[in-house]
Amino acid sequence: MRHPQITERQREILLKTLELYISTGSPVGSHALAERVDASSSTIRAELATLESLGLLTHPHTSAGRVPTDAGYRYYVDALLAEGVAERRRLETPEEHRSLDELLRDVSESMSEVTRLLAVVAGPGALGDPVARIDYLPLPERSLLLIVSTESGASSSTTVTLPREVGEDELQEMFAALNAWVEGRPVDGDLELSAVARRLQAGHDPRLVDAVLEAIEALGRSSERGVFVRGASALLARLDELEPSSLAAVVEIFERRRWLLRLMSDALQRSLAAKTGIFVSIGAENVFRSLGGTSLVAAAYSHHERPYGVVSLIGPKRMNYDAAISTVRSAADTLTRYLNAR
């Protein structure tokens, strides 16, 4: 977003105001800033008034001190991203993992422990990993091994028993039509193959078509990698920093899986579009208006340069953005290294 034009001194005062407010939670006045900025209290008061007129700061009606607006937070976060986080935090996760899901769970736990924020780590299936192709291998006794490969590089397989013997030419024709339809569509437990795919297969035995499509749909549901959420207790411990409506909105979104997946899918796409690879959504910028009292920090992780999933932290707008940005970046790096080493 475009920021108001401000002077270097105003920028310094704004950033110091944000740092003090985030660390203390109290409105920041000129006397507190005078200890950190090389200017008189009267000059600082004048600059604070200017920053307030520009919409970057505001003040509670009971105090002369200032607090940041969403625009002020955005200026501060953009400054952090432009300058680079000073120290990248290294996440502590067990060295050995029996599965990717275990690593996703461990990373979410570590993120929450480090930041005391709500951590959400989403795997590819949960976000709708696009299908690359569906292959088959004939087996004895009218059986087929079906293999679904996704664009992330993952694959899953299942066995289906056909209602009758089927020749190779018919199988090739069926799967050519099926692949033309499913390519690029997500395997997310809601792969709607039935209507259109069955029309594409109208020239074949309906029993055969049903057996194959039902097996693929079941495979999509069973191969889903989940969303791992950790840190609810950490969020509840910061009730004084969240409006009741914002807390209620967070709880509702995490109870409704479709909403949660939309939130994570949006975070994935916007982190991929961000120059730094880090996406930060503040207050009213959130995809759900009801999350206006919170901020989200997210980064995508990848498998051989293809997007694979997303890691994120959610908490009050008055969070330690430096730590949150460093943590999601470290988590994304950890998962990318693991996937690329497989």
Task: Please supply descriptive tags for the structure shown above.
single chain; 342 residues; alpha+beta; five-stranded antiparallel sheet; four-stranded antiparallel sheet; 13 helices; 11 strands
Describe the structure.
- With 342 residues, the protein is an alpha+beta fold.
- The protein has 13 helices and eleven strands.
- It has helices at residues 8-24, 30-34, 41-53, 70-83, 100-115, 124-127, 168-182, 194-200, 206-222, 232-236, 244-255, 257-273, 321-341, and strands at 57-58, 67-68, 118-122, 129-139, 143-150, 155-161, 186-187, 227-230, 278-282, 294-303, 306-316.
- The chain has a five-stranded antiparallel beta sheet with strand order 8-3-11-10-9, sandwiched between helices. A four-stranded antiparallel beta sheet has the order 6-5-4-7. Strands 1-2 form a two-stranded antiparallel sheet.
- The mean pLDDT is 82.
- The quaternary structure here is single chain
Q: Trace the largest sheet across and list its strands.
A: 8-3-11-10-9
Q: Could you give the count of β-strands?
A: 11
Shape: elongated
State the end-to-end distance: 39 Å
* Chain-averaged pLDDT: 82
Which value, in Å, is the CA radius of gyration? 25 Å
Largest sheet: 5 strands, antiparallel
The portion of residues forming beta strands comes to 15-25%
Runs with pLDDT <50, length 5+?
none
Structure class: alpha+beta
Task: List the secondary-structure elements in sequence, H or E.
Answer: HHHEEHHEHEEEHEHHEHHHEEEH
Count up the helices. 13
Helix proportion: 40-55%
